[in-house]
Design goal:
The protein is 41% helix and 23% strand. By secondary structure, the chain is α+β, with helices and mostly antiparallel strands. The strands form 3 sheets. It has a 4-stranded antiparallel beta sheet with strand order 4-5-3-6, with helices on both faces. Helix 1 packs across helix 2. The longest helix is centred in the middle third of the chain and has 19 residues. The chain starts with a strand and ends with a strand.
């Protein structure tokens, strides 16, 4: 019962696993850009009163487990996050404008799944996503390197 949030006339527990990637799945989130996109997404979620349960910025995509109030549609939240974050990234890193024409930083689509009772398992998966990506990169035809 501790996971249930309340608004004026609503009790809710809505968690969504969301994944989105930069255009052409380019690996752009290293060092300063990785920290900056984290700050940007955190501030945007705070502004809309969306709770980030867990998040990970991988070099070529972003995983987030979000608690989104039922007054917002998931598609509008993802559109807001992708739209505003791309504008802020272009302000802070002007060189990205040359790689991504017309301020189209993110891919058009995204992945979303309801967490349900598996929120802890999904949060753990997101937390260890970078380790799994590194392990996958190390695999070769002859096994691990």
């Amino acid at each position: 019962m501790e996971n249930i949030k309340t608004m004026a006339h609503t009790s809710w527990n809505c968690k969504y696993h969301i994944v989105f990637a930069p255009k052409f799945r380019r690996k752009v989130f290293y060092g300063e850009k990785r920290q900056e996109i984290g700050k940007i997404l955190r501030s945007l979620c705070e502004w809309k009163k969306i709770t980030i349960v867990e998040a990970e910025v991988c070099p070529d995509h972003v995983h987030m487990l979000l608690e989104i109030p039922p007054k917002y549609a998931v598609s509008s939240v993802v559109g807001f996050l992708k739209g505003k974050s791309s504008l802020q990234l272009y302000e802070r890193f002007p060189e990205l404008k040359f790689k991504y024409r017309n301020r189209e930083f993110w891919c058009r689509g995204y992945y979303v799944d309801t967490a349900g009772k598996n929120a802890v398992k999904i949060a753990n998966y997101i937390k260890h996503q970078l380790d799994e990506d590194k392990f996958g990169d190390q695999l070769t035809m002859f096994g691990k390197m």
